[in-house]
Amino acid sequence: MTDIAASSFVRQDLVSERAAPVKTTGFVGFVRTRLLNSPTNILLTILGLLLVWYIVVPSIKFLLVDAVWSGNDRTACLAENAGRPVGACWPFIQAKSTQLFYGFYPEAERWRVNLTFALGAVLLLPLLIPRLPAKSVNAGLFFLAFPAVAFFLLHGGGIAGFGVSWVAGLLQLFADSISGAGEAVVGLSKTSAAGPALWAIGSAIVLVGTLLHWVIFPLTWLRDQMLASGQGPWPDFLITAVIVSVILFVLGGGARVGSRPLITCLATFAGIAAVIKLMGLDRGGLPIVDTRLWGGLLVTLVIAITGIVASLPIGVALALGRRSTIPLIRIFSITYIEFWRGVPLITVLFFATYMLPLFLPGNFTVDGLVRALIGVSLFTGAYQAENLRGGLAAVPRGQGEAASALGLSWWKTTSLIVLPQALRHVIPAIVNSFISLFKDTSLVSIVALFDLLGSLRASFADPVWTTPSTAFTGFAFTGIIYFIFCFGMSRYSLFVEHRLNAHRRN
Amino acid sequence: MTDPIVKISGLNKWYGEFHVLRDIDLAVNKGERIVICGPSGSGKSTLIRCINALEEFQEGEIVVDGIELGPNLKHVDAVRREVGMVFQSFNLFPHLTVLDNCTLAPIWVRNIPKKDAEATAMKFLERVKIPHQANKFPGQMSGGQQQRVAIARALTMNPKVMLFDEPTSALDPEMVKEVLDTMVDLAEEGMTMLVVTHEMGFAKEVANRVVFMDAGQIIEANTPKEFFAAPQHARTKLFLSQILR
To answer: Does the CB of A404 have a partner CB in chain B at under 8 Å?
Structure first.
């Protein structure tokens, strides 16, 4: 023993390492120090065991032990026929599985749904695994090409024109609505007290509309010529490809930056052409399956994935907008966020489904599913914006200053320095919103869309399968499906968080 | 005599109603090393932050290497490309490795191919004596190492002028020396430097001129020898008597 009370002390022999006392490590140590180390903990341990006994055991008994595994109708799942207590009625799920997965999607066309999901999985999985190469091509295919392909696969139909026709169509709609507004004002002038003034304003607006029609006339003329040529979308496709390539070439810096961007652009168009040819889009495409026939897990996934993919860019734009120094952008962002956060999703869906058509021009209809998609995306976008704002606020001001001092523009500073750090801060919050969005998709059943849960409830109506355990079985099954997706997202977010925050580990 | 590389004339700046910089005139010749000192709140940092337009100003003009920076802050980007800056709190990008920190600006601002940018970055990391840490993240390094990376990062852009905003104030005493040594090396290579610092030893050893500021104005500017041996203004004398014990 050294005399540590002495005012001067010099250690002579260094203390060598010893093993820890047995009772503090291993299983025994764990039980002693974590489960039974205080009266409160002993109580909590007992409560935990009781919880397992009363919840986990009956669940397993219901789902597996007492479950009925085969049968053709309700009689198999009745206790008096089985001669024992009956748990889950799995034949019911088996009989209704197509309805739960596809809704009323025609049986002959279901391969299209399977193909879409297979394609999505094939593109998504390598995107999620960091080690695999070619992330930018992969991301481009998944986020840009896949939605278009998925649309034509799931919905069907072909294309009559391409870029030029679409631009012409949009511009024409714009010009038409201006002329329409002008005519409406002129119409008002006949009954109003301020007649002449209104008439002058209305005529001016009509004049603007007419002028616009003249301005875009070359485009519309070109479109009509191409439509009349009977070559399908191909002339339009070629012209669009040439125009886009030339614009890219000129804006990208011409020959100075080399031919790489041009080659990428042309390869993209070649890919689009291949897809058009392969799916026969130029010849009408696949038979159209109206979205009213879609249902089940298909609808749930379409809404959830669209919502997840669309809400993040909306959120980023709004979060940046809310911090903007330009008052108009800031006020717009704040108004948008506060509006959407202040309204329940059900109201948004009702509004999108039943009231939006009243505001759109008469000949302009939007598909019911698309309306729900837009509603869900805009709604979740507002939440994502607030999540991201927290992340942006957590990035020190010096980061932006350092980037500016190096000569990076605002856009590059934001996209290379500020946003990557902000996103890392709020991964848990963002995934939280994704998970909540995934489960909120079940709300679309109130606007006559049959998602997974809606299809399930519809299938309860079938008298062939009414048994005491049908409802429990159905909810247990859908619950498991929801849980698998949500738990998957949750675990993946932990993985991403761990990986991206490598810099915070010392 | 060639034109000064940095010329500040009639610079005035207000934060709202508060007049932080008053009639600043300062010319820095090529290769000159200027140390700016003064009590806190005297506007030293604000002054050098005006030179690369991190702060805007309301009156006056700053010319950097012939590029004019007026109150409307035109040519901000051109000026920033010529001026490197090192901050008190390093401000390395924590989500990027040391090497990526040093190649980001050359790649995205000067459009230099990645390979060349990495070669240049390694050259500068060797100069600040941390090439073997190139693949670490800033959070895994000591403060002194981080500050040396920050210096290397600024140098990769080939600046004509380097600004240092209290580069050693956030460091442990043991690490101050390694950063100051790097700065001395840089000075010996002929870099034009404007340094805000309280390291009077550095000022004596390296500076061509010491500028003393108080209440937003330049009180006294002189060679270090004269400045420390025979300060003229009463405020300077008081300041020096406070810090030199």
So the answer is: yes
